[in-house]
Amino acid sequence: MGYIDYEVADKIATITLNRPEAANAQNMQFLDELDAAFTRGASDEDVAVIVLRANGKHFSAGHDLNDRWPSPDEITLEWIYNAETRRYLEYTLRWRNIPKPTIAAVQGRCIAGGLLLCWPCDLILASDDALFSDPVVTMGIGGVEYHGHTWELGARKAKEILFTGRPLTAEEAEKTGMVTRVVPRAELDAETRALAAQIAEMPSFGLRQAKRAVNQTLDVQGFYAAVQSVFDVHQTGHGNALSVSGYPILVKLDEMKTKLK
């Protein structure tokens, strides 16, 4: 069973997260398929713009840590570090640097690992009911693996969202610059498609160079180095959780996902 749909029309590749029964929670197969779809779009000469969207009520409930993870009695920090380096850090950085414009269309909840799907995209359109959150501080970890928080939200808003775990509304996210545009839920796909079509008519080399200029400017300011270093800080949270009987992160994640069903 596949979790990711891919189609191309009018120079636009549309990647659809298609695990709505699990609120598009990301197991390992899900992320591997998503990486393959992004790679396919990046290498296809007939594709000018890549759109990432999701079927169902929610964009993504984040990581599905129960999928193919060892049991709490068997899990080790080395196993976690290796698994998360590949799928939660390397994939995300690769998607960020695709040499084509990418647009995420977000509806409903975008929780923790869900941010790792939309943040790498160049533009984010959000429905008016979208909520963005990173509640992993409640699990004893200082934020998800890809630290876009400070860059996307600014330092104080990032701290507020992390310290409290509360969701950020689409309107708030637009004010910080994280969200490009807020639209009614019923118009999200059409608005995203229209924006993608407009961008697809621009010269491809100009788009590539414009994206490179902005991303490199962020990297000169420290983005890439910060993401790498904060990833290692993130792992200390797992190390602390492993010192507690039963590895409580998995329990809290189950509780959170149950509330979305």
From TrEMBL:
It comes from Actinocorallia herbida. Belongs to the enoyl-CoA hydratase/isomerase family. Pfam families: ECH_1. This is Enoyl-CoA hydratase/carnithine racemase. InterPro entries: ClpP/crotonase-like_dom_sf (IPR029045), Enoyl-CoA_hydra/iso (IPR001753). GO terms for molecular function: catalytic activity. It comes from the Bacteria. Transmembrane segments: none annotated.
